[in-house]
Design brief:
Distance between the termini of chain A: 55 Å
Oligomer: heterodimer
Shape of chain A: globular
Largest sheet of chain B: 7 strands, parallel
Order of helices and strands of chain B: EEEHEHEHEHEEEEEEEHEHEHEEH
CATH class of chain A: Alpha Beta
Number of strands of chain B: 17
Strand order of the largest sheet of chain B: 7-10-6-1-4-5-11
Largest interface: A-B, 78 and 95 residues
Strand order of the largest sheet of chain A: 11-10-9-12-8-1-6-7-13
Radius of gyration of chain A: 21 Å
Helix content of chain A: 25-40%
Number of strands of chain A: 15
Number of helices of chain A: 6
Strand content of chain B: 25-35%
Number of domains of chain A: 1
CATH superfamily of chain A: HUPs
Shape of chain B: globular
Low-confidence stretches of chain B: none
Structural class of chain B: alpha/beta
């Protein structure tokens, strides 16, 4: 079974978000970049499926050269080879077209990615890739079992989950608890250096959106503390001061 | 120029997020707002009421085969409805159904997809969107005429001054290959207030000490008519189901009031609640980082405070 896992290279979830150049650029100073947490679940499940069924896991990132340490980490976790499309991932449709082009040129039984990137949170790329290739796409997938050419999944919906059956190939946007995150071991880290990482140039694709500037939300005011012996006061404040009840 | 809005319904009622999308569309354009509802499990009377929020017409795809949200079939039907109206702008609310439908429509209609729209833009080509899980905003330039706006909760206030909408049936051919991802069942809480839609949320963390104490959270939620949520450790330990997990890798909520009980306020949890209007934190540890993100705080024992708070709510709200 050949699995393609698409990963994003994003700021750590604990990063302080700020901007430079008159609020037109994300300030990367002091920011640690990681594999997107949802993509990490997709990768972990892909490695498990490979271990159970054989085959190969290819990891794909659309990004400039500075994403390569993140790609190497995915190789250390257990992917066999990697492809980097040498382009800035600025627009979801642009990225979807790049991924679709890689899938067309490959022979994948299953395409996994995270439910969304944690920088732009669009959660749209899997669906766009599905439509571009006329394949089904499901997200957010919390459970994925494969038997032969059929997959059984559960997908989170508001207030619960739905169960889905689909034939391979398809695209899935993953989230917990589909698998446990894997931490690379020493052997993985050593072997990752030797695994192939192919760099390809982007296909000619359109961009439909572009960020002109960023802003931060207004700072939060001070917290008003209320005595534990006077909870009635809290309800009164919520009614009369905050006007939310 | 008309705007088409995809509205979802749940247990026979149009979801509030659908009404927000209709009112968003009304604010976006001087043209007519045409809502599209899919599935036979919603009544014409319920759909006509969408007019109050700003729709002049509702196209109802009254087909039992579409009672469940089959993504590819929904996307196909919507694309056909949009073409029949001749709309260039489409609005829908982000959800487990809205998101994948929007993604497919963007490709089908050659439209720019703008995700996480946080307010009605004054200029449709310059749209404010929420990024970094609510920690920042981007002003996004859109270079295409066809546009899909996938809106966040509270991006628009629901209007109530419109008149009833005309409900018309709409149908189109559905080939079998639109149903290749087969929905075989679902496991869903019935009659609960859905967390992503909720205006009031009461959430519990490890401070509650075990699932057997959740009645304290539920009692307060019931008194407030609020949804219940929880922190990641609580869902990881299976005290509560995953769809109640609020945070970076769970549900992102945007209520007017979020009450957090026994949750320390890790940055990953805050990422799920930072769109809340007012935050109340109740925690035994006065050093809990959550207090820094709160509007109101009480330091104390949840087991002592929760029953008192529930009584105070009952006394003052009735």
């Amino acid at each position: 079974m050949n699995i393609l896992v698409c990963i994003t290279h994003v700021p750590d979830t604990t990063s302080r978000i700020s901007f430079t150049d008159n609020n037109t650029k994300f300030d990367t100073s002091g920011v640690q970049f990681i594999i997107g947490p949802y993509d990490d679940y997709a990768l972990a499940r892909a490695v498990e499926l490979k271990e159970a069924n054989g085959g190969e896991v290819t990891v794909l990132n659309v990004g400039p050269a500075d994403t390569e340490p993140t790609i190497r980490k995915a190789l250390a976790i257990g992917a066999d080879k990697a492809i980097r499309v040498n382009a800035e991932p600025v627009d979801s449709f642009y990225v979807a077209q790049q991924i679709a082009a890689v899938i067309k040129n490959g022979n994948y039984d299953l395409i996994l990615m995270g439910r969304e990137s944690i920088d732009f949170n669009g959660g749209m790329v899997h669906g766009m890739v599905g439509e571009l290739l006329n394949l089904p796409a499901f997200s957010p997938v919390m459970k994925l079992e494969i038997e032969g050419d059929t997959a059984k999944m559960s997908r989170e919906i508001e207030g619960g989950k739905e169960f889905i059956e689909a034939k391979l190939p398809f695209i899935a946007g993953c989230q917990e608890p589909i698998a446990e995150w894997k931490i690379p071991n020493m052997r993985g880290i050593m072997s990752a250096r030797k695994k192939p990482l192919e760099v390809i140039e982007p296909t000619d694709s359109v961009k439909n959106t572009e960020v002109s500037s960023y802003e931060l939300p207004p700072a939060k005011g001070d917290v008003k503390m209320i005595s534990k012996d006077n909870v009635e006061e809290l309800v009164k404040l919520l009614k009369e001061e905050a006007k939310v009840l | 120029m008309s705007v088409v809005v995809f509205i979802e319904h749940e247990e026979g009622k149009v979801k509030k997020s659908g009404l927000e999308a209709v009112s968003f569309a009304k604010g976006l354009s001087k043209g007519d707002v045409v809502a599209v509802a899919i599935g036979a499990n919603v009544s014409s009377d319920e759909l006509a009421a969408v007019g109050k929020a700003g729709a002049s017409k509702v196209l109802h795809v009254n087909d039992e085969k579409l009672n469940k949200g089959v993504i590819q079939a929904y996307s196909h039907v919507l694309a056909e409805a949009i073409k029949s109206v001749g709309a260039k702008h489409i609005v829908l609310a982000k959800s487990s159904l809205g998101d994948p439908v929007a993604a497919r429509l963007a490709v089908k209609l050659d439209a720019a997809l703008i995700a996480n729209v946080s307010e009605v833009p004054a200029d449709e080509n310059d749209v404010k969107t929420s990024i970094f899980t609510g920690k920042a905003f981007a002003n996004t330039k859109v270079t295409k005429e066809n546009k899909i706006f996938a809106i966040k909760k509270n991006a628009a206030t629901v209007l109530e001054d419109g008149s009833e909408a005309a409900v018309e049936e709409f149908s189109t051919e559905l080939s079998d290959d639109l149903f290749v991802g087969k929905i075989t069942g679902e496991d869903k809480a019935k009659g609960e207030i859905l967390l992503p839609e909720a205006d009031l949320v009461v959430s519990g963390g490890r401070g509650l000490k075990g699932p057997e104490n959740w009645n304290l959270i539920e009692d307060l939620a019931r008194a407030l008519n609020a949804a219940t949520g929880c922190s990641k450790p609580v869902s990881d330990m299976d005290w509560r189901p995953h769809h109640e997990h609020v945070g970076q890798t769970g549900v992102k909520v945007a209520p007017t009031l979020y009450i957090a009980v026994g949750i320390s306020g890790a940055i990953q949890h805050l990422a799920g609640v930072n769109s809340s209007k007012v935050i109340v934190v109740i925690n035994q540890d006065e050093e809990a980082p959550f207090f820094k993100a709160a509007d109101y705080g009480i330091v104390g024992d949840a087991f002592e405070i929760l029953p008192k708070l529930t009584e105070a709510v009952k006394a003052q709200l009735n």
